[in-house]
TrEMBL record:
Its cofactor is pyridoxal 5'-phosphate. One of its GO terms (cellular component) is cytoplasm. N(2)-acetyl-L-ornithine binds at R159, S303. This is Acetylornithine aminotransferase. SUPFAM superfamilies: PLP-dependent transferases. Belongs to the class-III pyridoxal-phosphate-dependent aminotransferase family. ArgD subfamily. One of its GO terms (biological process) is L-arginine biosynthetic process. It comes from Dendronalium phyllosphericum CENA369. Pathway: Amino-acid biosynthesis; L-arginine biosynthesis; N(2)-acetyl-L-ornithine from L-glutamate: step 4/4. The lineage of its organism: Bacteria, Bacillati, Cyanobacteriota, Cyanophyceae, Nostocales. GO terms for molecular function: identical protein binding; N2-acetyl-L-ornithine:2-oxoglutarate 5-aminotransferase activity; pyridoxal phosphate binding.
Length: 426
């Protein structure tokens, strides 16, 4: 069954699929911790780039689980892979060889600069693994007693204690101190700040051991990396022995129009991480490294669920589908269409919109700093217009649809966004 056929069939809700009464948010809130500021919307079904709420209303999904549902919802290849793998073998311990894990690792190695892969469950876990690997490398190879990892202001690397410390945004760290020591923040795309930090911090037992950075800052406002900056970072790391680590959790796996974000920058990292789009919505994370820094020994790092047959079998199908169906070509074309459309809207609202930027199908529309309008205002009204969007900070509306989004769907989304902006700017 083709994805278009799937979408057409899903347009008419199956009998009995629409709830007879409104979703009980009170019961939900009584049972579930309030760790999210949720929009008043309960979703229960999806197909392609569309989702339906419990009342049967249809929406274009330009959130995709926050850059996660690579192939959209209920993609035939994923449905088949999920069914096949769950009927075969879904979980065993990493104490045994897992063929699906080996196949997925080999695919990643063949399609990237990596030599080795470690599997886990999420982006935060992948970044934790990278931090641990960098610290061990610092102690055992670089002979650094107190290693420091440089990260960027406005970055985002996860919600664990170490990764929120690595995240250069104080709002995520508030009330969770004492934070993990060994991190220092520099401005993004500012090579002078990096050089100054390395010079200032390399004193006594302290030395910079690694630089952990996003090729494009996602949560920090959809800010692409500067090519010259990243090439200079690579040069600095080559000259000093400092490890260069890329967080590709949001921008990797084709989201940028290339398989990996680093391909936009003309450099290769020593270590990089992936999650989100890797499993197309099935939880999986991965840390990849070059052979020279693959120094973990048995027992030094592990994950019970990481790399199990189910997650790896489905993720491999996502990878193969991206390649077989030439989806990256669609990402480039639809990304250009989306940016051009957003720029045309921005030109109509210069007092409210300052910039449109991004790569492929990760794009941001930034609002003017001096307006009281915030991204959440547009996101809320866009829901009424039938399109789901997500903020990337207070002043940036983020557009991250499934990578299979069509030309017609992008046009529909642009019309809805323009209508939403017209409403909130009245």
């Amino acid at each position: 069954m083709s994805i278009q056929t799937l979408i057409e069939q899903a347009t008419i809700p199956p009998s009995g699929s629409v709830s007879s009464s409104p979703f009980d948010t009170d019961s939900f809130n009584e049972a579930v911790m309030s760790t999210y500021a949720r929009f008043p919307l309960a979703l229960e079904r999806g197909a392609g780039c569309r989702v339906w709420d419990t009342q049967g209303r249809e929406y274009l999904d330009f959130v995709a689980g926050i850059a996660t549902c690579t192939l959209g919802h209920a993609h035939p290849a994923m449905v088949e892979a999920v069914t096949r793998q769950i009927q075969k073998l879904h979980h065993v311990s990493n104490l045994y060889y897992i063929p699906e894990q080996g196949e997925l690792a080999q695919w990643i190695i063949q399609h990237s600069c990596a030599d080795r892969v470690f599997f886990c469950n999420s982006g935060a876990e992948a970044n934790e693994a990278a931090i641990k690997l960098a610290r061990k490398y610092a102690h055992t190879v670089l002979d650094i007693e107190k290693p420091i990892i440089l990260t960027a202001n406005a970055s985002f690397h996860g919600r664990t204690l170490a990764t929120i410390t690595a995240t250069g945004q104080p709002k995520y760290q508030k009330h969770f101190d004492p934070l993990v020591p060994g991190f220092h923040y520099v401005d993004y795309n500012d090579i002078g700040a990096v050089e100054a930090a390395i010079s200032e911090l390399d004193e006594g037992d302290y030395r910079v051991a690694a630089i952990l950075i996003e090729p494009l800052q996602g949560e920090g406002g959809v800010r692409p990396g500067d090519v010259a900056y990243f090439q200079k970072l690579r040069q600095i790391c080559d000259e000093t022995g400092v490890l260069l680590i890329f967080d590709e959790v949001q921008v990797g796996m084709g989201r940028s129009g290339k398989l990996w974000g680093y391909e936009h920058l003309g450099v290769e990292p020593d270590i990089f991480t992936s999650a989100k789009g890797l499993g197309g919505g099935i939880p999986i994370g991965a840390m990849m490294s070059k052979k020279f820094c693959d120094i973990f020994q048995p027992g030094e790092h592990a994950s019970t669920f990481g790399g199990n047959p189910f997650a790896c079998g489905v993720a491999l199908t996502v990878c193969q589908t991206l390649e077989r169906d030439n989806i990256l070509q669609n990402v480039e074309a639809r990304g250009e269409q989306l940016r051009n459309g957003l720029k045309a809207i921005a030109a109509k609202y210069p007092n409210y919109i300052s910039e449109v930027r991004g790569w492929g199908l990760i794009n941001g529309l930034e609002l003017q700093a001096d307006t009281q309008l915030v991204a959440a205002d547009i996101v809320k009204v866009a829901i009424d217009e039938g399109v789901l969007l997500v903020p990337a900070g207070p002043k940036v509306v983020r557009f991250v649809p499934p990578l299979i989004v069509t030309e017609a769907e992008v046009d529909t989304a642009l019309k809805a966004v323009e209508a939403a902006i017209a409403t909130v700017t009245k």
